[in-house]
Amino acid sequence: MATHLRVFPDSREPATRHRPQEPAVHVSLGDLLPLLALAKRHHYVWLQDFLDDEVAITPDLYDVLCAFNDSHRPSA
Predict the structure, then answer these.
(1) Of 52, 44, 42, 55, residue with least CA distance to 17
(2) Would 62 be classed as within a structural domain?
(3) DSSP string, 22-50
(4) In a domain, 8, yes or no
(5) Domain assignment of residue 48, given as a range
(6) What is the DSSP letter of 52?
(7) How many domains in the chain?
(8) Measured distance CA(34)–CA(69) in Å, rounded
(9) For residue 17, is it within any domain?
(10) Residues in the chain with pLDDT < 70?
(11) Which phi and psi angles does 69 have, rounded to 5°?
């Protein structure tokens, strides 16, 4: 009969699951986008865990993304 593994959090340490983490790693968009695109294309479930996370971008990238979004909206 197979043994079932049960994992319990260490009660001495506070749970970090619902505490937002402070950004500590800087990654170029060129390195990040291919990995995210691959994960989305292959429906990796772990990507869903981060969909509510916020990312910081430069104001000029934000302006470009807003303009791109406005130009690609389907017309009614």
Answers:
(1) 52
(2) yes
(3) PP-----HHHHHHHHHHHHHTT-GGGGGG
(4) no
(5) 29-71
(6) T
(7) 1
(8) 20
(9) no
(10) 1-19, 75-76
(11) -60, -45
